[in-house]
Amino acid sequence: MIDYQVGLSGVRSAELTGFFDGWPMAPSPDALLRILDASALAVLARDDGRVVGFVNALSDGEFAVYIPLLEVRSSHRGRGIGSELVDRVRRHFSTAYMIDAVCDPDVAPFYERLGLTRLAGMAHRNRQAPMLQVTG
Fold first, then answer.
1. For 18-29, what is each residue's pLDDT tens digit?
2. What are the C-alpha distances in Å from 103 to residues 4, 71, 108, 117, 123?
3. Which helix (H) or strand (E) segment is 35 a member of?
């Protein structure tokens, strides 16, 4: 059974390894813990105590919400965990005007199934950021 936890109470960085499949670079577990801790909202999915997924949201608390990270371990995909994590963000920020996520094109259909709409966007990426690690 999957349990959901709001916040990081009792979470150690060692529990946050094994995510970011297919990413050429990703936050280290220590950096990921700091990222989640600094977020307006972090929700973890646990299976028998093990962290198997997470989402974080950045927000001004009223108008705008951004979902920068949504990850589910490959062993747990296809079980509705990602959908539930996004739904929990949407319920938490139910009065916000906008909830946005930026994703690769192959992930867009997942968000469309959840009712999000494709939009044009712009971004800058600092691929030399010190918190990144090479994966793979």
1. 999 888 889 999
2. 23, 12, 6, 12, 11
3. helix 29-38
